[in-house]
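Page 47, continued from p. 46.
Same chain as before, 172 aa.
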Amino acid sequence: MAVYHFTLHAYRSWSPDHKRGYTVRGKGYQKPDRDRAGQYNHRANFSKVEFDSLLQEILILGTHDICRQRSWRLHCVGTEASHVHIVISWRGFKPWREVMEKLKNLLSLFLGRATDQPGRKWFVTDGSRKRVMNQQHLDHLLTDYVPDHPGLFWIEGDPLPEDRTGFLQRRS
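Result:
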């Protein structure tokens, strides 16, 4: 069984002028760069995304629905304004990238549907993933790391938030 911890970052949530610097694919961490931040802002097609409490509810409900539809096991979801943590497992061979891309694509659809912003970019191009290798690692994620984030948290067995926008009923 594959068990993964995915982190999906909100679109434009970490600018190159961030005080702690930024990451460039293939080059690693870079020092803060105001000029590069200006270039990023000029090229951006959409405004910065911040996951407020309504969007965090949608992320939790949407992730739960995606997993339920595919018989994947959702262990927990933790949110905050700039990103979402998802701990998930599945049986059989399915590359982690396919699972992450399915999550991002469908969560984007759900967020767009719920906010009447279809086609908007909600996430950065890539996300991060870590394979959960043992029970101790899984327990740490479920009881310490993911719940410690300041946004909404859901763990398997808890009641789900209400679908206040009805996005799950508006299937096209």
